[in-house]
Write a structure and sequence with these properties.
The protein has one domain. It is built from 3 helices and 21 strands. The protein is globular, with a radius of gyration of 28 Å. By secondary structure, the protein is mainly β. About 15% of the residues are buried. It has helices at about 40-45, 70, 220-225; strands at about 10-20, 25-35, 85, 95-105, 110-130, 140-165, 170-180, 195, 200-210, 230-235, 240, 250, 255-260, 265, 270-275, 280-285, 290, 305, 310-325, 325-335, 380-389.
Length: about 400
């Protein structure tokens, strides 16, 4: 699709230094950085699903089953040439610069803590844009082309870890981060720099495993009580940004079809609070206005936030060894054990009556797996038996 690049050199370097060797109080300093190139395969594959490689036909009010002739949809290369993907002859691969620095401190025999800074800078990233050539040549319609954009990420991470000692293993971590780009996967604002769609500022996670200690009991008591363990996990984070939508317009110059941003109204609160809203919070419609025509709007991109998430999971388990190399593990797990409500998708369209309100719970909004298996849902429990040999 384009001429290959021969000079993509991607060096990477890592270093670790043990600053002191005091017993149970050693300090390790680590640093690293490097260059990572993408392949652009995704951008290239799009061209092979459009003009010259696929065809579409729509039928209305026809009897079923459709005939063989109706199923035979020829792939044409005749004009008009619509939905073409165009590539520069010397398209350059995207690359990311990554760097990090960390200090890890031993805190006694079984504990350690670390503080890490992580940064990255994405360059020559591909932003797919849409344009129209119909005004210049009626044989052409909409085209897709690539535009270089950038992204930046910075994070400060803190972690405390307790290795297995007296049956207790714990891990606690906190991350503050900020991600900025030119539109993430949202085509409407693909060239507006601002908070990424997945920019989560604060994340806290904690996990603990406790193997209950053995106690001198009778044979029956030991058989009933020995070998149990408890697992717990806490997840808490702040909300994802909400990309607000104003008018749905077509740019007469390029043919781009997109939602505009919105205008901010001065001296109006961004949020309203009260029990009449899902999650006791909604965006204030009076704080925003629809721009006129194709005016892009003056609100910063992704400056309003959705709901955060907090969830506690808990498990009880026990191993039953019945042979030298075989055991049966019983496990009972409770997800979101305190049944804390987590709200998800917020209506972003200022033209909707439900603008700014949560319309779904979080487990229905993430979309990666079925909602009953997704985090952020109501309390649920599962029981399992696993044979290991």
């Amino acid at each position: 699709m384009w001429h290959a690049s021969l000079g993509n050199f991607a060096p990477r370097l890592g270093i670790a230094w043990r600053a002191n060797t005091f017993q149970n109080w050693s300090t390790v300093v680590r640093a690293g950085g490097g260059v990572f190139f993408d392949t652009n395969n995704e951008a290239a594959n799009v061209a092979f699903s459009e003009f010259g490689f696929s065809a579409l036909e729509a039928y209305t009010s026809v009897a079923l089953p459709i005939t063989t002739a109706q199923q035979n949809i020829p792939i044409s290369t005749a004009p008009p040439y619509a939905y073409l993907s165009l590539y520069p002859s010397h398209l350059q691969l995207p690359y990311t610069l990554e760097w990090n620095a960390a200090v890890e401190q031993e805190l006694g025999r079984n504990n350690s803590a670390s503080v890490t800074y992580v940064g990255s800078a994405g360059r020559r990233l591909n932003a797919r844009q849409e344009g129209s050539l119909a005004g210049a040549n009626p044989n052409f319609g909409f085209i897709y082309y690539l535009r270089d954009v950038t992204s930046d990420y910075d994070a400060l991470q803190a972690k405390f870890q307790r290795s297995v000692a007296k049956g207790v293993n714990a891990l606690v971590s906190y991350t503050w981060s900020h991600s900025i780009d030119y539109g993430s996967n949202f085509a409407a604002l693909a060239v507006t720099r601002g908070n990424s769609d997945f920019d989560v500022r604060n994340t806290f996670q904690g996990g603990i495993t406790w193997e209950l200690p053995s106690t001198p009991l009778s044979t029956l008591g030991s058989a009933v009580l020995h070998g149990w363990a408890l697992d717990g996990r806490l997840l808490a984070r702040t909300g994802f940004p909400v990309t607000l939508e104003g008018n749905f317009v077509t740019d007469p110059a390029t043919g781009n079809r997109y939602y505009t941003n919105v205008n901010l109204i001065p001296n109006q609160p961004t949020y309203l609070y009260g029990g009449q809203y899902p999650g006791n919070r909604a965006l204030n419609r009076a704080a925003f206005a629809i721009p006129t025509g194709s005016n892009p709007g003056n609100a910063p991109r992704n400056f309003v936030r959705g709901f955060g998430e907090s969830q506690v999971n808990f498990a009880v388990r026990r191993d039953f060894p019945f042979a030298e190399r075989a055991r049966l593990q019983f496990r009972a797990e409770a997800f979101n054990i305190i049944n804390h409500p987590n709200f998800g998708y917020i209506d972003p369209s200022l033209n909707d009556a439900t603008f700014g309100q949560a319309l779904q719970m979080l487990n229905q909004s993430l979309g990666t797996v079925a909602s009953q298996y997704q985090q952020g849902g109501p309390r649920s429990m599962q029981f399992s038996l696993r044979l290991a040999f």
